[in-house]
Design a protein that fits this description.
Layout: H1 2-8, E1 12-14, E2 19-24, E3 44-48, H2 70-83, E4 89-94, H3 96-107, E5 112-118, E6 126-127, E7 130-131, H4 136-148, H5 150-162, H6 169-180, H7 183-194, E8 209-216, H8 222-231, E9 235-243, H9 247-250, H10 252-263
Length: about 260
Amino acid sequence: MFTNVLSRNNVAIRGDGERTLVLAHGFGCDQNMWQRLMPHLDGFRLVLFDYTGSGGSDLSAFDLDRHSRLEGFAEDLGEICEALDLRGATLVGHSVSGLIGLISAVASPARFADIVMVCPSPCFLNLPGYAGGFERSDLEELISLMDRNYIGWAQHLAPLVSGQPADSELSEELRRSFCSTDPLTARTFAEATFLSDHRDLLSRAAHPVLLVQSERDSLAATSVGRYMHDALPNSQYEVIDADGHCLHMTHPTQVATLIREFTGV
């Protein structure tokens, strides 16, 4: 079973440090999105993987029922940690993976010592008393665009995520990543990411959490980061003077420095 899990999620181990970092990618991406950060994480043992339905994972293992909710991806993550018998690791989650990691950590606290969330959001929706950044109708329209024009959707979303022009190297890299994902699995993950509300989970966090936010992020504003900082029992909130939603790609040195200071490695 363990061998199947590691194969299913295309798990890779890099480095041999005493402290393990589990690098969990965000929606529309895969483990290759950590390539800019990894050179700055020497001295750590790095666990990389692709969520079921993403990257080099086994697409046949994608389950519409299981993976229509973030809890299903958290189950994937938990099974990877179990297969590797992880104890006291640090979860580094980009965007929605911050919340996926938190779901997994609440379910199995011993697996993690702490959590680093890069540009996270517990809810992208504008709701009474909470500004997530988007009206539900706008997000539903963005998701429906995936059905009508998948390439156009990827071209529209990439610069929004990168915070850079559409013809920039990073936007192009993200566009290619989005386009390489199977449309059905991408749409299912998108709905689970953008239409869910996990704010109630924040107060249940038992681990120290480092929140790393971008000053100008079209997907997760600094007000969302402050909301999370106030709601989490034990958190540290850091804002980097940057554009976009991918700080691990645009500012890897600064992100790595914050990870080292937070973990003491």
